[in-house]
Structure formats: C-alpha cells, structure tokens
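Support request from a user on the community tier.

User writes: "When I paste my structure tokens into the form, the page sometimes reloads and wipes my input. The last time it worked, I copied everything first. Here is what I submitted, just in case something in the input itself triggers the reload:"
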C-alpha cells in the first residue's frame, strides 16, 4: 500500500474533508489527548483511542512515519478530588490507574504511542509556557492569585469551535477545567494552590505563585515539548480526541500554544464521536459505563470490540449493546475461519488465479475507503463481500489463494480484528479454571442444578468440558 498523498481526513478547523498535508512528509506528528488517570478508563474512552489507533495504523500502512504522543493527565480537578477522597498522595492514587490503562490498551491491541508524557513530569515546561504568555501580554494574574488567559487578546479565539464572537464574555473568568460551550471566558492557566492541592502533593512553586497547572495548559506544554524534542517543530500535523474536547479543551490549547509560539498549533484537527448506551454518552457521571477489564473478565475477544467500533464511521455515534457485540464476535469468527481456509488453499497452485484478480480489485476499494476520511465501515463491508465471493470461488477450486491471503493480511494488520488464539488467553483460562472449581464444589454438595448451570455457562463461551479420572478437562469448541 503506497500512495501516501491520498489520505484525506475531515478537519474540524475547516469543517471539510481535506488531504492530509504533513509539514515534512513522510513524518507525521500525531498528538492524541490521553486518559485522565483518576480511575479506570471506560470503553467510551477506548472508542476514541481505538479510532486513533486505526488512524495511526492506516497512516503507517500508507507509508508515513508516525510519531504519536499520548499524554497522561495525572493532575487536574478530577485526579486531585479522587486522591483527596482516597486519602492518598496524587501519584500514589494515579499510578495504579496508569498501569491499568496500559494493560487495557494491550488487551484492546492498541499500538503503544511513542511517548506517554505525564503532566506531573513537565512542570518546568508548563511554568515556562505561563511565563511566556505573561510576557507576551495574553495572560494576567487575577486578584485570586491564579493566572488567566485573556481571550480578548487572542483575536482568533473560538475559531475551532465556531463560537459566535458575541458569546464571548470579555472579563468573565472560569477556573474549573471543564465548562460549557455557553461559557467562553478567560480560563485558568495556573491555579493558586489551595489546601486540597497541598494535601495531595499537587502544588509547585512558580515565579507567579505556588499552584498547579490547568488541564488545558498541560497538553500545550507537553505537545510543544515533545514535537520540539523529536522533530524541531512547533506545529503538529494532526491533533486528535473525542468531540467533547473541541470546546473548551482544544480551543484553549490553540490559544495557549499559538499565543506563545506565534505559529499554527496543529494543521489537522480530527475528532471522534461518542460511544453511547441507549442514546446517552457513556460516562462515569451517567453510571452507564463498562471498562475494558469488565469485557476482558467476561471473556470478550478484543477483536469483537474493535470490529464493532470500526463498523461505524468514527464521526458517527455507536450504540453499545450485547447484541451488537455478539454480531461483531460472529463477524470476527467468520474472518478467522476465512483466513484459515485461505491458508490451507495456498497449497493449491493453479495457472489460472481468479482470486488474485478479485483481491486486486478489493484492495483498491478498501484502500479508497480508508483514504476517504478513514471510512472503516466501507472498508469492512468490502472485506466481508470478499469473504463471500472468495469462499464461493474456493468452492469451485479457484486458484490465487496466496495473493488473496497477502491482501487480506495487509488489511488485518491495519484493522487487527482476527480472533485471539483463545486457548492462550490467560484471562479466559483463569475464568474457566474458576468456573470448573465452582462446578466441582456444587457437585460435591450434590447441587446438580448449579453444576449443570455452570456447564451451560461455559458452553455459551465455547468451552467444552469433560470429566476424567484425572479431573475435569476443558477445550474450546
Ligand atoms: P478523559 O479520560 O475523560 O480525559 O477522556 C479521554 C478521552 O475519551 C477523550 O478524548 C474524550 O473525548 C474521550 N471520551 C470520553 N467519553 C467518551 C465516549 N462516551 N465516547 C467516546 N469517547 C469518549
Ligand atoms: Zn489534551
């Protein structure tokens, strides 16, 4: 797969699909706002991280050399509140959630970013950024001791989120990290330390007063530091996140970064839609969330989660439910069986290779779909069509399986939706072990109804058991 110049993506800045034009191709710098590690990330968060994973993989498959940065928000209003509640120091509270995030990322087969800057490790850069904004007269110290960004001094404020200028309340101030679109105001760059901040160890000395960074400032400081370090630039090629970040987070990132450097902050802004549950955004606040570890413990194959998400365009909402997940799991199974068949058929060498010709056409279709604003649902549909057509051809003993397999594998490298070799999945093995022990216990106490229910529960997950003189053995059906 080549033709790297063909990749087009919707740009939130222009509200149009535009060709990707990196500053220095083949390099692409990609900044993806990462998790706030106050708690476990839910699969809504991971929908965003998965669309970013797909974007990264497609850019790489198209010949780009991607440098991906994903920050870890380990100090903000939420992490401080959570640490205070748990009566722990900030890093003591966030460290296990950072670790859990990496485990969940690996379970979901998300490629690791090249760097994971954690906000608490970038205080000198954040302090320098605030100093620069003060020097340039776009920031000021409020009478409450915090430092604010003066949005009236930044004429293009509101461009990304298309705020009507009349909505901007000159002189109004907001200190909290998250606020509504109806509230564009001067926002806190640096918040004066209060008793809670001191209690959890979230306060740092700075020339403009002891305090801690605002969430928006963190992403500006970390991204500028990292792209400067890696590539000697001050402009990102792509900045991505969920749509809820457009305002105020990304709007504020632009104001802070451009206010300091005088350079465009990002050339392409890419935003993914939400994962919903019955039409409502999945979120901790609504209580309608599931974590990746919940799915993992239920024995859900990560490939099914990936396929489920990729079957909808990243700019459309996805509704999460068990039926959709089961259907995706069926799809994964079909893809896996098809690949097994292709693998077997590669031995069948014939002079005429109809599958090779079909594969070339499908390859062009899938490539065109992914180049067109990362249209994964169209790509997936073309691949399922191919499975159907190729199976029919193989029934007729058609040749060309090797070329078909090569094409298929190239896209599987991008989508990564083939079944996990389940016998080697430690989470599944652990779960089966526990259920078998529970069944043995039930049989011992002559509760055969419970024992049968456990057997059925295992069978529903494709696990067959057999009682032998050496104990109960299991295998995947
Ligand atoms: P947070 O950990 O809250 O900072 O969020 C991390 C990422 O998850 C951000 O890019 C959010 O936009 C994204 N996000 C939060 N909720 C959802 C959701 N329900 N669906 C998709 N993305 C989400
Ligand atoms: Zn961010």
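"...and here is what came back when it finally went through:"
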């Amino acid at each position: 797969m080549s033709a790297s110049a063909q990749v087009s993506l919707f740009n939130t800045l222009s509200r149009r699909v535009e060709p990707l034009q990196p500053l220095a191709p083949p390099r692409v710098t990609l900044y993806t706002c990462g998790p706030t590690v106050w708690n476990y990330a839910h699969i809504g968060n991971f929908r965003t991280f998965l669309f970013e994973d797909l974007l990264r993989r497609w850019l790489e498959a198209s010949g780009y050399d991607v440098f991906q940065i994903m920050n870890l928000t380990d100090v903000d209003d939420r992490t401080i509140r959570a640490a205070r509640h748990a009566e722990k120091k900030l890093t003591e509270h966030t460290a296990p959630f950072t670790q859990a995030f990496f485990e969940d990322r690996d379970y979901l087969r998300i490629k690791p970013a090249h760097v994971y800057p954690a906000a608490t490790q970038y205080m000198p850069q954040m302090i320098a950024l605030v100093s620069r904004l003060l020097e340039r007269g776009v920031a000021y110290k409020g009478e409450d001791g915090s430092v604010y960004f003066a949005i009236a001094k930044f004429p293009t404020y509101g461009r990304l989120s298309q705020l009507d200028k009349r909505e901007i309340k000159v002189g109004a101030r907001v200190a909290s990290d998250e606020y509504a679109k109806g509230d564009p105001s001067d926002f806190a760059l640096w918040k004066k330390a209060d008793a809670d901040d001191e209690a959890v160890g979230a306060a740092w000395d700075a020339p403009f007063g002891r305090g801690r960074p605002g969430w928006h400032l963190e992403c500006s400081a970390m991204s500028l530091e990292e792209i400067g370090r890696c590539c000697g630039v001050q402009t990102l090629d792509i900045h991505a996140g969920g749509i809820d970040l457009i305002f105020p987070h990304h709007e504020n990132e632009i104001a802070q970064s451009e206010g300091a450097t005088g350079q465009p902050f990002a050339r392409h802004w890419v935003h993914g839609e939400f994962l919903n549950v019955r039409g409502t955004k999945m979120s901790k606040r609504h209580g309608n969330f599931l974590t990746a570890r919940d799915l993992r413990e239920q024995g859900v194959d990560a490939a099914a989660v990936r396929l489920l998400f990729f079957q909808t365009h990243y700019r459309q909402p996805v509704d999460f439910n068990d039926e959709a997940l089961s259907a995706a799991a069926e799809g994964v199974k079909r893809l896996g069986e098809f690949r097994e068949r292709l693998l077997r058929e590669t031995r069948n060498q014939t002079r005429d290779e109809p599958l090779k010709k079909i594969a070339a056409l499908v390859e062009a279709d899938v490539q065109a779909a992914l180049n067109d604003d990362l249209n994964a649902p169209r790509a997936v549909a073309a691949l399922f069509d191919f499975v159907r057509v190729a199976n029919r051809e193989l029934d007729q003993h058609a040749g060309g399986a090797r070329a078909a397999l090569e094409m298929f594998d190239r896209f599987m490298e991008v989508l990564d939706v083939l079944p996990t070799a389940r016998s080697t999945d430690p989470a599944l093995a652990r779960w089966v072990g526990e259920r078998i022990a529970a069944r043995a216990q039930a049989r011992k106490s002559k509760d055969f109804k419970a024992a049968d229910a456990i057997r059925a529960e295992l069978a529903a997950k494709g696990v067959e058991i057999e009682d032998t003189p050496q104990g109960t053995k299991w295998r995947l059906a």
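Agent notes: The reload is a front-end session timeout and is unrelated to the input. Residues 463 and 476 are 5 Å apart (CA to CA). The pocket of zinc ion (ligand 2) is lined by residues 33, 219, 249 (CB under 6 Å). Escalated to web team.
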